[in-house]
Amino acid sequence: MPEPRPHPFRRLIRHTARRPSRAAGAFGAALLLPLAACQAPEDDGALVFWTPHVTPDRLAQQEATAAAFTEETGIEVDVVPMSAEDQNQSIAVGAASGDVPDVVLLAPDQAASWTAQGVLDTGTALEVVQELGPDTFSRNALRMVTFEGDTAAVPSDGWGQVLVYRADLFEQAGLDPPATLEDVADAAEELDGDGRAGIVLGTAPGDPFTTQTIEALLLAGGCELVDEAGEVALGAPECVDALDAYARMAGASVPGDQDVETTRAAYLAGEAAMLFWGSHIYDELAGLAPDFPPTCPECSDDPEFLAENSGTVGALTAPDGSPVQYGVTLNLGVPVGADTADARAFVEYLMGPGYVDSLEVSPEGRVPVRPGTPDDPQVYADAWSELPTGEDDDARAPLSEFYGEAVIGDIVEGAQSFRRWGYGTEHAAFAGPLAAENTLAGEIGPLFEGEDPAVVAASMADAARAVQADTE
């Protein structure tokens, strides 16, 4: 999944596999960038933009958007492809020497750590949000990059964990589309059998995709990482109940440890009635990713069978009635020491005249968290739905050609409900390493072997406390 994430960098791995010769060159170049990228401002005086979208086709799209900005403003832009890991290394070196990029496309955990280090110009980010209109942004996306009242970056877009389900099988079984975590578990057990699993989802212990799945399911179950006192809360009843639902789903899943690749393959082959995956799945379902085509029995006669017969649920309803969807956002940050005026102009361009062009880099994984403007609240969301997507340049097509208005609307609406543990709070510095180190996924194995969910919850809480002690 994402070049942002099922784990943030798994999508990059996937695209590298699809375009081995071109992507290998980009990856090799990226390895050299941490030492050299910060020197770009001295080389040609251009505004420097770091982006984690590093594959050649995505880089070309971003360079075209930057060129349009240059034509409009006269401000030159160097687009520098750099993974998040390399960004973190380079910003530390650059901040110490005074050489920093002007704009960075970064994730909320980076925004948290960079803000704590005093690297980001929060004043400029706030000015941009106020200029564009705070009400035009997803509140949750803004919250994920707000720390101690400071807006660290400007939310751009993101991808969310979605539940994909076989609408035809649900109809045959007389089931309503699932709305809650318990609904999903009930449907998985009901549809399990007759040579098809009720669901397929991440279960491989210690795996990044399982880390994502754990947080997504527990959030949907109303489980919080910490309580109001700042103490780890993973042993709470809501967490135990969510783990119980997870165990029920795993019992109705495809046998064996499941990861990001095997889960996708199982659903595309028609071997499961439901799938938890990132929104990047939409192009595969529609047959727009030649390396990962639908292979279900019906798909040989109708390649669009799964797209036509799959429903999706973005945000599930938590026990308190609120919509919750695990999501990963990308945000535009301006470092301290950047060329503030030009950087602000570029960010405002990327969130305005150049916004739709930016989303076109990967529409299925770059869902707008600024759906529109004060005058036209849905203008960007509507334009996004018509952007061509897919891995085959000759067959790219808009998602709206394969999915109805309800599905498209659910994708965009779900993006406004993105949630993550800790982000936007003083616990962000704890939540980031907890996910990056796959700590909870390392404790999940016994759950799938029949261990009491309460025991697993307690084990996860102990492991989380150890990480918290090291980071806070």
Automatic annotation (TrEMBL):
PANTHER family found in the cross-reference section: ABC TRANSPORTER PERIPLASMIC-BINDING PROTEIN YCJN-RELATED, ARABINOSE-BINDING PROTEIN-RELATED
Keywords: Signal, Transport
Name the record gives this protein: Extracellular solute-binding protein
Family statement drawn from the similarity comment of this UniProt entry: Belongs to the bacterial solute-binding protein 1 family.
Coiled-coil positions: none
Species of the source: Nocardiopsis endophytica
Entry-linked InterPro entries: Bact_solute-bd_prot1, SBP
